[in-house]
Backbone:
């Protein structure tokens, strides 16, 4: 496991990107974009985020925590946060990010409180929040996403979705290949 305290890290669905301090993702422009709050999060039913946190804590055995700040950001801003100043147009555009340093969630401005898929994305990012604050140890950062996807799928099943990965427009093979530790041998 890499020492997260010496790195600025953002976790994004299908990607866990770690940038050494001073690398392109740590530039003042990116730091400034992280410090600006986007539009207010659309109203959720009262208590939705605390209920999600309690659900995650119950299923994972982790301690429940206070809800993190949640911001909306334009897709281009999310791409800059994830990839740095030179976000390439051909890269995957993230729909949500969790900032380990700031303990904040960033959702795309297209996020819709009435959309079950979008609410599951929020739950996924809340999993990352609990992982970090509970100091969950994993062999590599990609395994944070594997845990988050597993809990997201379980939550969706409880919401009546029989095939959660299909519902998320993913498949289990993609989840497996994108959330495995690199082979360093």
Residues:
């Amino acid at each position: 496991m890499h020492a997260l305290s010496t790195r600025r890290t953002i976790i994004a669905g299908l990607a866990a990107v770690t940038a050494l301090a001073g690398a392109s993702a740590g530039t003042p422009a990116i730091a400034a974009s992280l410090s600006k709050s986007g539009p207010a999060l659309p109203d959720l039913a009262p208590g939705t985020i605390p209920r999600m946190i309690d659900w995650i804590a119950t299923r994972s055995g982790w301690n429940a925590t206070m809800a993190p700040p949640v911001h909306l950001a334009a897709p281009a801003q999310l791409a800059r946060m994830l990839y740095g100043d030179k976000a390439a147009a051909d890269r995957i555009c993230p729909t949500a990010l969790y900032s380990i340093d700031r303990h904040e969630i960033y959702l795309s401005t297209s996020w819709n409180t009435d959309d079950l898929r979008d609410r599951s994305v929020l739950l996924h990012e809340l999993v990352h929040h609990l992982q970090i604050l509970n100091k969950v140890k994993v062999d590599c950062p990609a395994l944070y996403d594997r845990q988050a996807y597993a809990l997201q799928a379980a939550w969706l099943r409880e919401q009546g979705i029989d095939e959660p990965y299909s519902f998320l427009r993913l498949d289990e093979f993609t989840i497996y290949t994108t959330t495995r530790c690199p082979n360093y041998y």
